[in-house]
Amino acid sequence: MKLPPFQALLEEHRTDVYRFLVATVGPSDADDCFQETWISALRAYPKLRRTDNLRAWLFRIAQNKSIDAHRARGRRAVPVAAVPERPTYSTSDGDPELWERVRDLPTKQRTAVFCRSVLGMPYDELAVLLESSEDAARRNVHEGLKRLKEELS
């Protein structure tokens, strides 16, 4: 089981691997996936135990890089024409059932959830408002959101 030189493997399969990646991730992500495929292959190449189907091995790596690219696409920020200064919310907007549930929360949780989620108030400021520690403020937000999630599920 002697491995051919890596450069020979690259030259033999580069076109097909690139075409596969263009088809699976699109032209904009294909270059990055192509590079990542060959870097991963180069790192693993000296440790290969079977050399009977190097082409399939390369395409498996390319397929994994393609899957990674699709997953990463879901985590990317979406460009917008203009970013609002601050989101505007009103308790009269949105889901009336949600606001009813928020109003039913215990006082500190209700205040914590609203001020943190709607106003974006930092925890140190919220702690002063609630007359508590920052940890207690975080806990009130967490418990309030947890309760809302359970009730609305």
Short description:
With 153 residues, the protein is an all-alpha fold. Helix content is 69%, strand content 0%.
Key attributes of the depicted protein:
mainly alpha, 153 residues
Quaternary organisation: single chain
The tally of strands reads 0
Order of helices and strands: HHHHHHH
Largest sheet: none
Helical proportion?
Answer: 55-70%
Number of H/I helices: 7
Give the N-terminus to C-terminus distance in angstroms: 57 Å
Shape: elongated
Enumerate the spans where pLDDT stays under 50 for 5 or more consecutive residues.
none
Mean pLDDT: 86
Beta fraction: under 5%
Radius of gyration: 26 Å
SSE class: mainly alpha
Could you please describe the fold and organization of this structure?
69% of the residues lie in helices and 0% in strands. The chain has 153 residues and is an all-alpha fold. Helix 1 packs antiparallel against helix 2, helix 1 packs parallel to helix 3 and helix 6 crosses helix 7. It is elongated. The model has no long low-confidence stretch (mean pLDDT 86).
Helices and strands, with pairings:
Blueprint: H1 6-25, H2 27-44, H3 54-73, H4 96-104, H5 107-117, H6 123-130, H7 134-152
Helix pairs in contact: 1-2, 1-3, 2-3, 5-7, 6-7
